[in-house]
Amino acid sequence: MPTLKVNNIKIEGAQFIVPLQIKIHKKDKRSIKLKKEKNQKSSKSTPFRERNIIFVLITILILTLLLGSLTYKEVQRERYYLWELARSEGLNIAFSIQTLGPRFILNENALKEILVLLKKEGVSYIDICNDKGLILISTEEERWNNAIQISNPGRINFINTRDKKGNRVLQVIKPFNLDISRQLDIWKVLPLRNSYLVVGINLEGYYARLNQTRRRIMLNYGIIMVLVLLGIYVIFKLQETYIVKKTLNEMKDYTAKLLETMDNAVVSIDNNGIIKTFNRKSEEIFGKQKEEVLNKECQKVLNLRVEGECILKKCLLENRNVDQEISLEEEGLKRKILDVSTSFLTDESGKRTGLVAVIRDVTEIKNLNDEIARNKRLAALGKLSAGIAHEIRNPLSSIRGLAQFVSDSFSRDDERREDLNTIIQEVDRLNNLVVQVLDYAKVKKLNITSFSLKNLINDVVELFKQEITNKQIKFDIKLSPDISLIQADKDQIRQILMNIIINAIQAIPEKGEIKIKAEKDFIRENPAIKLVVEDNGIGIAAQDLNQIFDPFFSTKEQGSGLGLSIVYKLIEGHQGEIKVESKEGKGTKFIIILPRKRRK
After folding, report:
1. What's the CA gap between 82 and 79, in Å, rounded?
2. CATH number given to 3-24+262-361
3. Superfamily of segment(s) 448-595
4. 287 and 332 in contact (C-beta within 8 Å)?
5. Where does the pLDDT of residue 102 fall: very low under 50, low under 70, confident under 90, or very high at 90 and above?
6. pLDDT at 472
7. What are the backbone angles phi and psi of residue 457, rounded to the nearest 5°?
8. Using CA atoms, how far apart are residues 76 and 80, in angstroms rounded to an integer?
9. Does this model's pTM top 0.70?
């Protein structure tokens, strides 16, 4: 017997971690189509999380290279811009100084005053040097007579250097020609012919600005990168949440379909005995719709009582599981035998959250087992009865012959003659019983013919007109119009009908009704006719129902106990079925199903 284990199962809105074992018998298995191709494809593909990690790493690498390249270009562009700005400012200052004229330029004090004014513009010093690079005049005394290198004589030169404090300085070296149209000291002017004006622009402010700009660019791109990565993370999280939610929904749908397609009833309750799960098979077994029982107390809606209490609630109270058979009897439903197996539901911490019951309808299996046992019993009893009947038949013939001979030897007025006649009558009765026993034990060959079951029923009913008139019994015959011919042994079917109708008449004291109904049906997936004979007589006691087809079992004082045994054997010979439903004091119903065509 295979066992299905289901863990962490979600049942009707409540999640439980259930060590649930569901017994699935071979006879009760249902084919559940699983998407094997999808599962195989899923198992072969890279796991979702690993794919995400690889994608994120590649994205970060590409993003880092891209943002690094953009940052480098931005910094270089800013450096070039500041460099051009410094050169432009240096040239503007050089042109401005040159426009002041020789009188101010050659005046050291005036030159220093100009430098003080230009300090705010970031000028470190102002020099005048000759064409050899020798500094002739400077705002810084320590620079006098120092030499500077002029790379491109006669042109504007830009040289990066450092001052005495170690600050980075851009030297703007511009050719310098004095305007000698005015009256000047020739001895002062003469050495300055073909000289250069040198303006030292302090670059520390520019570099500080460049560093600030670099930090700002890197910060901006860093924020962009963080936002992009955050966006990717959010997208992945949303995608993962979607996939998890989709997977959970698929698992929920799969679990729901699994529960609905199971050939066992599954009922779950919480710790208060409130029903939380009620699958399709449960509806079929209990004859109730899901909406009628969900979120209701099991004690009130399920007739699964043991000692007056619902077995599911009893399991919770006693904190123990059960595995037993229960008889279910409800109005409007046939009596059923149910195999109930329970398991506790627990959460992740192991705390009990409820109970789940797997319920299996074993009525047919029980009936089949009873039928097999009955057949074995009937076969053994029939063989034994036939042997005994055969052995006593000859002595009975001798007893009757001798009694008849003795009776004939007495005169007609002799009182002993009456006693001998009684012996003869009892011997005849016993002999009839022996004939019935031998007839029951003998395997009869069927004489199969096609005939109208409708006409046969009407003919049999006609035979009992006198009896039903005397007891004021009415026949209610409902024969389906689509019932035509049936292939069977006509005499045996007549005997079946007569025996059952006789039992029905005898079960009604007076003023009763016998219903006969015939309609189409199926037996073992083959076309059949269902014949129902129902009376409202005294009924059959529950303890006698399993014995009514046994030979010699009878509750009547004058009954032989072979009538229903013969009926059972004749129906079995036709490969049919007979069932009986009865309640003491309310009546009895015999259900006979006969195949329409004889199978080989």
Report:
1. 5
2. 3.30.450.20
3. Histidine kinase-like ATPase, C-terminal domain (3.30.565.10)
4. yes
5. low
6. 85
7. -60, -45
8. 6
9. no
